[in-house]
Amino acid sequence: MTDYPIRKIFQDFYPSYREHHPVTPEQESAAQCIMGCKTGKFGYSMSICPDCGHVQIHNASCGNRNCPNCQGTKAEEWIAARSSELIEGLSYFHVIATTPHELNPLFLNNPAPMYKLLMQSIGAALAEVSSRKENLGAVPGFVSVLHTWGQNLELHPHVHLLVSGGGLVNSRFFKTVKNRRFLCPVKHLAGAFREKFLEGLKRLREQNSLAFSGSASVYQGYYPWQELLTKLYHLTWNVYLKETFNGNGNAIRYLSRYAYRTAISNSRILSVNERDVVIRWKDYRDEGKEKSLSLSGEEFIRRFLMHILPKHFSRIRYGGYLSNSTKKKCLLQIRRLTGSPHRENPLAGLSVRDRLKKLFDVDICQCPSCHSIMHQYRSPRCSRRC
Predict the structure, then answer these.
(1) Helix, strand, coil percentages, rounded to 5, for the chain
(2) What value does the CA radius of gyration of the chain take, rounded to a whole number of Å?
(3) For tag attachment on the chain, is the N or C end more exposed, with fewer CB atoms within 10 Å?
(4) How many Å apart are CA 195 and CA 352, to the nearest integer?
(5) Does residue 67 contact residue 262 with C-beta atoms inside 8 Å?
(6) What dihedral angle (degrees, nearest 10) is formed by the CA atoms of 189, 192, 193, 199?
(7) How many Å apart are CA 58 and CA 150, to the nearest integer?
(8) What distance in Å separates the CA atoms of residue 263 and residue 307, rounded to the nearest whole number?
(9) Which secondary structure element, helix H or strand E, spans residue 58, and what is its range?
(10) Sign of torsion, CA 80 84 88 93?
(11) Which SS3 state, helix, strand or coil, does residue 156 take?
(12) Is the pLDDT of residue 355 over 90?
């Protein structure tokens, strides 16, 4: 099978899918990027050794955030940047917040406002519960990452958060958790998450910011809408709080799996034929057993495109003392209060060649035959990059 099965799937099945199904501009752009990634459509670079004449041609990648062929370098660069923001010796926690599946029709019809509400609600709930005196008594720093898929590619909106076990109090004190394995009661966090999300959901409807079509059309009426809200208020919302990480660097590397993961990686695609796609997935309802799932080509495309986010929507967000507007000032103050050393980003200011050499121990400018420095030539872009 090809080295990039996701590209083959889109090349084989997307044209037919587009004929029979509506697609958004963002979905069309992502599909075109995936189909053209590393084919020469977006240009190429050529390396020529002046000593031995060795020639290497590298087709350019698309750079689209939904393309699994393009995320490796971005993830490593993100890890380096975030690792420089960790506080030495501080506990970090992994929180996962999931919405009830009854909301899925609204997510499908209103991805931008609903996903924004999801990320804002868990962030606000975390800040509120953590700031209570019986818990941390301060607002921690946190990084949140939106995921919209489950292992079988069906819709499963949830947020992964990396949360610090400490926070600033009036910019004069840095308070840490008393128990390194305890951040706050999960039930309290889940309850606050539910309350803030449903308050925001009602506000969206009052502002006429929600669309009701397809499977969500039933909620356009007043009484079905009230029945949905009542049901959601009485459900227990799933919030999972994992134990602390073994080492700060592991915390960021662990979260990077979610920050730069696409709906499915090439390694999970087992086979592709003229009709079907077979993928590997873990069934967490069956003790996480690995299983295979056969989908028609068009059904695979439908499920994949369901997770293309609206244009300019940021799936990685920062809160608490890690908020972009105050992060630099807060980290400086925290390091002063705790005596934690400042960590420089090891990739800051490096060229592409030096970054790749540091990350992967590969010198893209060195001739593999005689080890001389090759000359680099780039073609003009063949078409607009995603």
Answers:
(1) 40, 20, 35
(2) 23
(3) N
(4) 46
(5) yes
(6) 180
(7) 34
(8) 7
(9) strand 55-59
(10) negative
(11) strand
(12) no
More confident residue, 176 or 261: 176
Tell me the HSE value of 163 on the side-chain side, using a 13 A CA sphere. 33
pLDDT tens by residue, 186-219: 999 999 999 999 999 999 999 999 999 989 999 9
The residue type found at 118 is L
Contact partners, residue 204, CB within 8 Å, separation at least 6:
110, 113, 114, 117, 210
**How many residues in total does the chain contain?**
386
Place of tokens 């060649």: 353
* pLDDT tier, 1 (very low <50, low <70, confident <90, very high otherwise): very low
Q: What is the rounded CA–CA span in Å between residue 29 and residue 34?
A: 9
What is the value of pTM for the model shown?
0.89
Burial of 153 (0-12, 13-18, 19+ CB in 10 A): buried
Q: What is the pLDDT of residues 19-71, one digit of tens each?
A: 999 999 999 999 999 999 988 888 888 889 998 989 988 888 888 888 888 77
Contacts of 95 (CB under 8 A, 6+ apart): 122, 126, 142, 160, 161, 163, 183, 189, 239, 240, 241, 242
Per-residue pLDDT tens over the stretch 287-306: 889 999 999 999 999 999 99
**CA 10, 16, 22 angle in degrees (round to 5)?**
95
- 14: pLDDT confidence band, cut at 50, 70 and 90? very high
User: Which pairing describes strands 155-169 and 92-98: parallel, antiparallel, or unpaired?
Assistant: antiparallel
Count Cβ atoms below 10 Å from residue 320 Cβ, excluding itself: 23
> Please, where are the H alpha helices in the chain?
5-20, 25-36, 72-83, 104-109, 111-130, 186-206, 222-234, 248-259, 297-305, 327-338, 352-360
**Which two tokens mark 195?**
């309350």
Locate 278 and state its tokens: 């077979």
